[in-house]
Amino acid sequence: MSAVEEPFLMPVEVVFRRGRQTMPTGRIERGRVRTGDEVQLVGPDRALTAHVTGIDLHGRHVDEASAGMHVGLLLHGTAGTAVGRGHVLAAPGAIDAHHRFTADLALLSEADGGTEVRTGDRLQFHVRTATVLGVVTLPPGADPLQPLHQGTVTVALDHPVALETGRRLAFRHHARAAGTATVTRLG
């Protein structure tokens, strides 16, 4: 019985330009990628597919890279596309960008930066390498959510980011670290 391999996924940290090609760099979160593979760029803009024409591992060319490795992927097919921090490279169809989700929110204590969260508050969410503002909506009767408490909220992000259920996110409120959120439902 063979183990099922997880699909490739790499958050983009920094992007370099090499002529007409783009080289996003980052640490591979899961799966593996090979020279010649087709990958999908997922982020605030539309999803775009490109081909990996080279893999750079600390200045040397390799044919394959896997989870845990920090690499640069030389891509063909991204000319004129704004590729940057916050985008995710993945196997086609492995992950989608979403701008709405439901999450379980856990607030820090006041001493650690937690503060009251009300419906309509704009929180700054950190999703892998992306930072995006989102408006929270609490269920009726749960407003406001107090420090050191937990609650379920719906979030509408300013722009879509690559998300999946079970993903843990950190968030800031009033420019201070305020707590964590675990995505429970997308859309």
UniProtKB/TrEMBL annotation:
Keyword Zinc-finger: no
Keywords carried by this UniProt record: Elongation factor, GTP-binding, Nucleotide-binding, Protein biosynthesis
Ranges where the Translation elongation factor EFTu/EF1A C-terminal domain occurs: 95-185
Transmembrane segments annotated in the record for this chain: none
UniProt keyword Lyase, yes or no: no
Domain Translation elongation factor EFTu-like: 22-89
Annotated PANTHER family: ELONGATION FACTOR TU, MITOCHONDRIAL, ELONGATION FACTOR TU-RELATED
Name of the protein this chain belongs to: Translation elongation factor EFTu/EF1A C-terminal domain-containing protein
